[in-house]
Each structure stands twice: as C-alpha cells, then as structure tokens.
Amino acid sequence: MRRFAIALAAAALVDGLIADYPNFRLAYLVRGDLLLARARPLETFGNVVKTVPQERVEGLREEALARLRALRERPTEDLLPRYVLQLNPEQKHALVVDSRRSRLFVYANDGGKPRLVADYYVTLGKNGIEKTREGDQKTPIGVYHVTANLPRKKLTDFYGAGAFPINYPNEWDRRQGRNGHGIWLHGVPSDVYSRPPRASDGCIVLSNPDLVSLGRQLEIGLTPVIIADEVEWSDAPALEAERASLAAALEQWRADWQSRDSERYLAHYSQRFAAPGQDFASWAAHKRKVNGAKAWIKVGLGRVSMLRYPRERDVVVVTFVQDYRSNGLSNAMKKRQYWAKEAGAWKIIYEGPG
Fold first, then answer.
1. Among 198, 202, 257, 270, which has the highest number of CB atoms less than 10 A from its own CB?
2. 185 close to 162: Cβ distance less than 8 angstroms
C-alpha cells in the first residue's frame, strides 16, 4: 500500500513537471516507467519498446543518472572548491564546472571567499574534456572568464535563451599549444528542455530557464568560469592557508619591485618564465635596464583575485589592478600573472595584460 502511495505521489510530481516544461523529454520517460510499473516489473530505467531509437533513450538515461548523482553527492557547507582562493570585491560570483558530474556550481563572493548559492545540470563536449585543437568537440579545462553577453535575438534558435562566450584559449592554453575558439555558455533549442551530458561541440549548455537564471549573476569581464575534470574540495582553513601563502609572495614581489633591487625582484620569476614576446633572459635584461634608470618607484595593487588552475599542480592565476608610479611614468593597468610552486616557493611563470 505504501509503495502504491509513493508511486502515485511520484506520478503527480512528474505530471506537474511536464505541465510546467512540456518539452522535458526525461520527464516523459520517467512517466512512462511509472505507468508501466503498475502492470509489471521494470527491466531497466527507460523501459521503452524497442521501436524507440535506443541512442535517444541512452542519452536520457545518462542525463537521469547525472541528475541523481548531483542530488546524492551535493557538497556540504564545510567543503569549498580548492580553486577559488580569493575573489576581488567586484566579482560578485564565480562559476565552477565539475565535468565528471555534469554540474555547474555558482558561488557568491562572501567577503572574498566563496559561498555556494546554486547549481545546475549542464551538457559538455561530445568527446569529453581537455580541449586541445579546433573541432575536437571537447570542453576545455582551465580558468576563464565571461567576455560577452549575446542575447537571443542575435542568435539562431539553436542557442536558446542566449549565450555567454568565455576567453578560450587563454594565455596558458596558448602557451601549451592549444587552439580553437567559440566556447560559450548557452541555452538549447526551443523544442527541447535539456540535452544529454555529452552532446555539445565543446560548449557548456544549460536548459533555457537555467541559463536565464544564471545570466542574472554573470558580469562581463569579471565572472570567472573554472572548468575542472572533477572538482577538488577543501575546507576553509586549508583554503585560507594557501591564499595567505600566495598573498605573502605577491606582496614581497611588489615590495622588491618598489625597492629597485632588480636581483631581489627577478628572484620572484621562474627560469621558465614567459611574457608576450619575451623569455626570462630578455625580461630580466629589460627590467634591469628600466629599474636602473629610476630614482624611485611606487607600486600599488588592488582588486586582487587568485584562482587555482585545475589539474595543473600548484598553478594559480592572479589578476589585479596595478598602479605604477615613478619619476617619468605613472599608469594603472589590469595585469594577469600565473604563479607556480617550484621547490616549495612561489614563482611567476607568466605575466601580461589582464
């Protein structure tokens, strides 16, 4: 009797879901199973007749499993993504994509620290993750940010409620020889609610209602999008210790630059350092020449963010506004650095405009 009552309640929930979202194909599959279960035991989830294309059914099964897994494995409040070390005050939210779970987590900026406020089911590349070349139908792994908002009226129906491009390939991708373009967060055609977990050409795809909801929290040029194969979790004390360690190295770099002691300043840079058009040797020669010609230097850093790079061991993307002043030059610019640990010490391996 109890089982029958549960089945009736489940059927009512599914019927309500279909009424709200008549193009939600997974809901129809669940409804069919519930009706069939009244007559005989189910052999499998999505126990449809053989005339239905099995490829379509398999995609719905994979979506159902991804959604169930997300409910069962939702991170507890004491767990935080290891990637978000610090957000600057203007970054209201950060996105973290767990590719293995087909899930996008939204974190609010709570005094520079992440706080989970929402999560969504997402579709990723047909051929998985770790994009390396144009047309490989994979989703990249890395630290990116939203670069534009493309409204529905400027797109075909394929992109649904709109699109938000991200800056793939970024500086690190180009250094690794990765290419391609056109990685977006976008919606789905109007005749479907959602797509299977692996069905895009590399983009991150959400249902149209979810994209509209997410879009309210995205800020062009500010919102980070961190894509991982599987999210690494940490607790608040461990995350703070990592942040403080890098913050101390960044402050020492600033102070040593301001001191005009070129050797102390250059000691913060890795021998494998690269900047646009420069390696470590040319960078060092240029900096020695510039610093030697200055009577004084003042350097201020503001709006600092620190985002750990997925999969890369101890690589952190640091972005800030640099206020540089000296006799003869004053300017402010957004700068991006990549820091990595070498023999236990933080070193800069890339530096360029942000």
1. 202
2. no
If asked whether residues 254 and 347 sit together in one domain, one would say: yes
As given in the structure block, the two tokens for residue 110 are 């709570």
Kindly report the backbone phi and psi dihedral angles of residue 296, in degrees, each rounded to the nearest multiple of 5, phi listed first. -160, 155
**Residue 330, beta-bridge partner list:** 325
151 upstream amide cis, omega within 30 of 0: no
Question: Is 290 a member of any domain?
Answer: yes
Residue ranges in the chain assigned as alpha helix (H): 2-20, 25-37, 54-72, 171-175, 208-215, 236-259, 262-266, 280-292
**Count of positions (residues) in the chain:** 354
Pair (86, 213) in one structural domain: yes
- How many CB atoms are closer than 10 A to CB 339? 25
Strand 315-326 with 297-308, pairing: antiparallel
Where residue 3 falls (left for φ over 0; alpha for ψ -120 to 50; beta otherwise) is alpha
Which one, of 122, 319, 129, lies nearest residue 224 by Cα? 319
- The two tokens of residue 249 are 């190295």
Neighbours of 237 (CB within 10 A): 8
Considering 188, 212, 234, which residue would you say is the last residue of a domain? Answer: 234
| C-beta contacts of 49-57 below 8 A and 24+ residues apart | 57/29
Pairing verdict, β 204-205 and 184-186: parallel
* Rounded alpha-carbon distances, angstroms, from residue 57 to 35, 124, 142, 245, 250: 17, 18, 32, 50, 52
Asked if residue 329 belongs to a domain, the reply is: yes
Q: Is residue 74 part of a domain?
A: no
Please tell me the total count of domains within the chain.
3
In order, the DSSP letters of 288-333 are HHHHHT-S-EEEEEEEEEEEEPSSSTTEEEEEEEEEEEETTEEEEE
C-alpha to C-alpha distance for 165 and 176, rounded to whole angstroms: 21
pLDDT by residue (tens digit) across 8-63? Answer: 787 888 889 899 999 998 988 888 777 777 777 777 776 765 555 677 889 999 99
**pLDDT tens digits for 274-319?**
998 999 999 999 999 999 999 999 999 999 999 999 998 799 999 9
